[in-house]
Amino acid sequence: MTDARSIIARIRDGGQPSPDDLSWFAAGLASGAVTDAQAGAFAMAVLLKGLNEEGRVALTRGMRDSGKVMGWDLPGPVVDKHSTGGIGDCTSLLLAPALAVCGAYVPMISGRGLGHTGGTLDKLEAIPGFRTGLTESAFRKQMTDVKCAIVAASADLAPADRRLYAIRDVTSTVESIDLITASILSKKLAAGLEALVLDVKCGSGAFMKTPERAEALARSLVATAQGAGCMTSALITDMSQPLATAAGNALEVIEVMETLTGTSVNTALWDLTVALGGEALALAGLAHDAADGEGRIAEALSSGAAAECFGRMVVAQGGPADFVDRWPDRLPSAPVMMEVPALSGGFVTQIDGEALGHAVVHLGGGRLREGDRVNPSVGLSNLAGIGEETGAGVPLAMVHAVTEDAAKAAVRAVQAAYGIGPEAPEEPALVQKRIG
After folding, report:
1. Is 122 a catalytic residue?
2. What is the distance between the alpha carbons of residues 52 and 57, in angstroms, rounded to a whole number?
3. What is the pLDDT of residues 377-430, one digit of tens each?
4. What are the backbone dihedrals phi and psi of residue 272, each rounded to the nearest 5 degrees, phi first?
5. Taking 90 as the threshold, does the pLDDT of residue 154 lie above it?
6. Parallel, antiparallel or unpaired: strands 231-238 and 431-435
7. Could you give all domains of the chain from N- to C-terminal order, each with its CATH number?
8. Which helix (H) or strand (E) is 237 found in, with range?
9. pLDDT interval class at 30 (50, 70, 90)
10. Is 188 annotated as catalytic?
């Protein structure tokens, strides 16, 4: 007879539980048959000893099946993208409507800010009236009418993950690649996807700081998703500096709208959206290969079709009908703006992206504890990038804050996050490796 103690002991001793055992454990997390103490011991055993590929697939499937698994009857492939998180990473807002224009259906279930990284839902909620919590019937209607939606996970989606994630957070087991893999994929696969492209970030602003850790996670995610029956590939992408030149909810939406409408295109945002979209279209059979898919995504963006689709998504989720035309008037702005002067002259040689993320959180743009209210107007803009030349007193960024004291503290934090040297470094490649 299966029981939690024997499963934990087998992993602790370097063995591998059977797929049925791991499915049972996932179901027990959701039902309460597994206690908090047992869940914590399981997480620690997995962190220290690891699961093999068959075990990761079984745990992921079990967590996926612990709640509702959505099914779709749509006249096109159901596709999504997941990013492991970074600073100024707002590609989802560009990619979802671009994929929809190209014939995909995109039920994007996203998250809120986590640690130093921003959350897609928090960014969208900077748009007045935008609702991320949809009923299933509203979600399904929007998928039929608009072909894309960006929403919060419902309570009945992968409940085993919700329980295990909270326990990992208080037992120092968050960094287990096996558990990260099962957590990410159980939620994504419960959305009924046929194809998934993964953006695995690497660098100072990412959770995976080194290329080796990023590649290990990417390979685990791709193998597990494919083992669970979903066509998947991953791009390992640079997060040694912010992707956008802004970090903060409304400020990133501004940069998205500038790029979507062509008023001021952020090249890095555009290029990464096109690369991820090309992969997704190829996986879904909507393009001959990734290069063909990239061309289709670029056309959706440059023609304005993606901006029009984004506007329809905003309206469907409660936002202003004129948002695409009047977004500068519709987004909140902070009362205090303060430049961040460089402390010395030279070239930007490195950026501590995690420190920038924490600066935004302390301004009120993220949560220091669960339940904190997010201020959508605060953050950083006009961030200097690696390789840029600067001089003493020349602005490295602009702080958007509620009070002068908060702005001054952010100025000091941003100055400390920038490394400045006498020689220009080589700018890191945006896309570093493809896995899949």
Report:
1. no
2. 9
3. 999 999 999 999 999 999 999 999 999 999 999 999 999 999 999 999 998 999
4. -70, -40
5. no
6. antiparallel
7. 4-50 (no CATH), 79-326 (3.40.1030.10), 336-421 (3.90.1170.30)
8. strand 231-238
9. very high
10. yes
Asked about 83 being catalytic, the answer comes back as yes
How far apart CA 261 and CA 244 sit, in angstroms, is: 16
Q: Residue with structure tokens 């977004």?
A: 327
Pairing of strands 389-390, 346-351: antiparallel
Q: Is the dihedral of CA 38, 223, 57, 110 positive or negative?
A: positive
Residue 257 identity (one-letter amino acid): M
Furthest-apart CA atoms within the chain: distance in Å: 70
Reduce the DSSP state of residue 435 to 3 states and report it: strand
Residue 377 designated active-site: no
CA 257 to the chain's CA centroid: 18
Quote the distance between the C-alpha of residue 266 and its chain's center.
Answer: 18
Would you say 344 and 420 are in contact if contact means Cβ atoms under 8 Å apart?
yes
Phi and psi of 393, rounded to 5°? 90, -10
pLDDT tens per residue across span 305-341: 999 999 999 999 999 999 999 999 999 999 999 999 9
**Catalytic residue from among 56, 61, 123, 188:** 188
Let me know: does 352 contact 316? Beta carbons within 8 Å: no
Token pair listed for 213: 């850790």
pLDDT tens digits for range 174-194: 889 999 999 999 999 999 999
Does 296 qualify as catalytic in the annotation? no
